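#structure-requests
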Amino acid sequence: MMRQMTYRTTKDLITTGVEIRLFGLQKDNKPFNPSLFYNAILDDPTSDSFSCHPKLEQLEAIVKSKRAKSRSQFHLPLKLSDHLSIGVTGYNMIIEQRISTAKYFYTAEDEVKEAIGTTRWICVDTNQPLTRMDIDYAFNYGGEKIVFSKKELEDIQTLSEPGILLLGFRDIKELEPHYQVTHPYFIYPDDTVKRANTQPKIAALIPQEERKDREGNQIEPPGLQVVILPFADEIRSLPVLSTPKPNQEAIETAKEVVNKLYMKEGFDPNRYENPYIRNHNNMIQAIALETEFEPEVDTIIPNYELIEHEMTSVIDRFKEQVGLDNITEEELLSFAVGQKRKVIDQDLSDSYKKLKLEGQSVENLWEQGQLTKLTNDSLKNFLKENGIQPKKVKADLVAQVSEYLSKKFKTN
């Protein structure tokens, strides 16, 4: 009974695109025999889907080598000068892992098949399906809709030939940490096809040397890190906070605290699974195999017992040096609430100034030509109250309000 259920479940998994690999281990110098059970599952036991290893260490090395390779994100030319360019491929070396997109399946004639979704555009007036040639794109500008074809829209978004243009060289000290607006990319020489329809961005190219472990395995490849830089209007000016200068004794103790928390082998994200994604995958596996669900152990949570055992004395010494030895948990919480209260009071003060301005009627501000001083929410609320669907951009909102008031007073 269990064999038949296993065969059926395995067949369904293979049908849906799941790749099954068998790793056999030798026991007591006896070779692994797949004919006892696994030959019925594997189509060809002699293929790459089956491998036998005498030691667990060899199996771990094979599993690591089977990890998914980094997928390329783009192929672009790196233009070093007017007459010299090389092709490069961009990769995401480190990026947040997310749950994969769900797929829909249905059963037909005792087979599990994937349901393929399609999108159709229907005309509101004629209720007839539309082709891609029938669809245009429009933007609201000055209260009017500016219509573009798909080709015209692509030409507008593509300002020049796609590529990475070298503008010059700067000292790496000038690259501030807050200049990074998204995760960096990694580029490696590769003469392939260009990617079109890319929006221009300014980035810093940081060289990266190759790193290997003791066994000679590559940890980091040689190439260039592409750090996307913000434009001027994307950098906010933050208030400079004055903090008391700590004494040298407290600085040395703080270094000791950090050194005790330092991981000798370094931080390797591959050693820590995302518990949310693992639980999600385990739940799907339990449903597919009709087994009980076992929650994943969260290895990201710090070992507080070990920290308390190893660091209690140095933490207490640091608290005494900075004057926190007599403070209680309740006082810390009340201090945090007080800091939050200051921020709220400042926000209320700013809101009061806005309300004082918005206390005037929208009509008065329109007559004075000061609609731009209103917030987006105020403009949207005014439009909704008058039965008009508001746009997203402030310039369009101002244009909508101006158009409405112009027609209103012209009619009166």
